[in-house]
Amino acid sequence: xxxxxxxxxxxxxxxxxxxxxxxxxxxxxxxxxxxxxxxxxxxxxxxxxxxxxxxxxxxxxxxxxxxxxxxxxxxxxxxxxxxxxxxxxxxxxxxxxxxxxxxxxxxxxxxxxxxxxxxxxxxxxxxxxxxxxxxxxxxxxxxxxxxxxxxxxxxxxxxxxxxxxxxxxxxxxxxxxxxxxxxxxxxxxxxxxxxxxxxxxxxxxxxxxxxxxxxxxxxxxxxxxxxxxxxxxxxxxxxxxxxxxxxxxxxxxxxxxxxxxxxxxxxxxxxxxxxxxxxxxxxxxxxxxxxxxxxxxxxxxxxxxxxxxxxxxxxxxxxxxxxxxxxxxxxx
Amino acid sequence: xxxxxxxxxxxxxxxxxxxxxxxxxxxxxxxxxxxxxxxxxxxxxxxxxxxxxxxxxxxxxxxxxxxxxxxxxxxxxxxxxxxxxxxxxxxxxxxxxxxxxxxxxxxxxxxxxxxxxxxxxxxxxx
Lengths: 332, 126
Description:
The complex is a heterodimer of chains A (332) and B (126). Helix content of chain A is 18%, strand content 36%. Chain A has helices spanning 16-25, 45-52, 100-108, 130-133, 175-184, 192-201, 236-245, and strands at 2-4, 7-9, 28-31, 36-41, 64-71, 77-87, 90-95, 113-115, 120-126, 143-148, 151-156, 165-171, 188-190, 249-256, 269-272, 275-286, 291-299, 308-313, 316-323. In chain A, the strands form 4 sheets. Chain A has a 6-stranded mixed sheet. A 6-stranded antiparallel barrel of chain A has the order 14-17-16-15-18-19. A 5-stranded antiparallel sheet of chain A has the order 5-6-7-4-8, covered by helices on one side. The longest helix of chain A is centred in the N-terminal third of the chain and has 10 residues, at 16-25. Chain B is 17% helix and 35% strand. Chain B starts with 7 loop residues before the first strand and ends with a helix. The model of chain B has no long low-confidence stretch (mean pLDDT 95). The interface between A and B is medium-sized, with 17 and 14 residues.
């Protein structure tokens, strides 16, 4: 067990590698109750949220989900989240556990937010066989109120693993029952360790590591979630300037290339031609690719796919190559 | 968790098997389990002098890099090269094929500072 976002979370049950492969090949189950759940209601909610978030909420129909970012006026990323339109004027926001307090304070300056995090538990059922256990009829990035083994839940076809699957929000009192029902049907219990290796292979950023208040969506390569054409929103001026003039550093993915080398870790220096050009923000040994992988902010000139760089591990340099994101894509 | 009776243990979870003037060193079953799947092992160079209580090797799991501390002082006289190719031996056989290095003891009295199997089992709550 380790502390994470104010919670005690299991790193692993049977082992990170076993759990990782279960999600890639079959189906795994995560307890993600640490995540925050906010509800925003009202006739002006859409307009106000569209001025706070980078993506365009007007494109989200009832029953749909959208990945979006909350930026400050300088374009710095306060959080990344998934927004669900559950009724025409009712939005559900699933935010990072570590940011619940700051997000709530930020959003509350502009609209009425209900924080349901403490009453709400959440499970993620992830993997190619998830639909054999839960046949929701939902299309990807869709959400609906459904009965799951007799318990009323919000079921969303979203996730943080790079695989197909669901995120299921339920009342706290139903969580243990649902957890056991999914396990009975063959899901492998998975901890925070596998959640991290899975999301990193899929190049899904982790707030506080790969994205943070001192980085922007443009630097992080998340421009496709920034709707410049929707009108004004928090951070727009800075982000537009960065988009048009370019950025000095970019969040790049890389693979270690030596046959046997230590896995990259957060804060390890990244070098090109002996010069420090950046730092690792997330790194691990990839169970699927069987090599070290990572993300890091790299000087734009060295961030092109195919560039050979070096990662410094305990004073020694190990070669790596900038790779196309995502490092792992379902069905590849 | 297995805690073999013929070994001595450091609080930092290394085990020591005394073979004459040499100590064979690895990490305990409890340690390998806590570290999770080991994917890389960095061992001290042959001939290096290691000091009791000082870090001298690194094991890396999927999750993190962890220092290994020398439980005794002396010169490195052998390292388990097999771990370079198959680091998972530390998980599979921590007291056997997963041994890490051998130290020629410069002060055998240091062995008295190490934990007995009973005390180590109590230390890890086993």
